Amino acid sequence: MKSIHTYTKKWAKKPTNWCCLRNRDNLTHAIYAYDNLGMTWRNGDAAIHAERDVGNLYDDTWEWWEPASKAGMSYPVFSHQLDVEPAIKYSISRSKFREWVDNYYANNMTVVSFYEYNQISRNTYDANFGNLQYDENLLSFDAHTDGFKAHVNINITAGNDTQVYDTTLEQYLDYKTEQDRSITFWVEDGHNYKVYINKLD
Asked: Each residue of 120-144: pLDDT tens digit?
């Protein structure tokens, strides 16, 4: 507990993820840390151990991570040191880490914390939508999430003039048109959205 208080005092916020020295952690520790401290377990099945054959980000696993990051594969990972060349054991060399970040940037992706990654993933189940109104020209709804963004797919047939508007931010949003002409975009907690299916002048 002392280390948590030290971290909180130094960084002005509580730590959001954890693991034990030399991986001496287990599910009992994870449940306690989440229930009592709101911290997610970076060694759990929802984190780096989600896939057994994916290694952490260090020089020995770069042969896997180089093409994966170039392809924009999203996966939770951590390393120990990021700024030494060459890297120590279980760390990534500075040049490889920069390339890893640049690869995701080139795919229009952002590197986020374990906690944010976990909360966005949970929105698949936790997000809900109210105040739904729909006709052939307009879809309107309110988004309710766990406090982080949620990725939503709207089952409409998008046209060339379809637009998505966040009325809370008072701005139009980018969206992706899927193969079936439905659209996908990010929503935020407590925001209202209007999808102009057939934009009328």
From this structure: 888 878 899 999 999 888 999 999 9
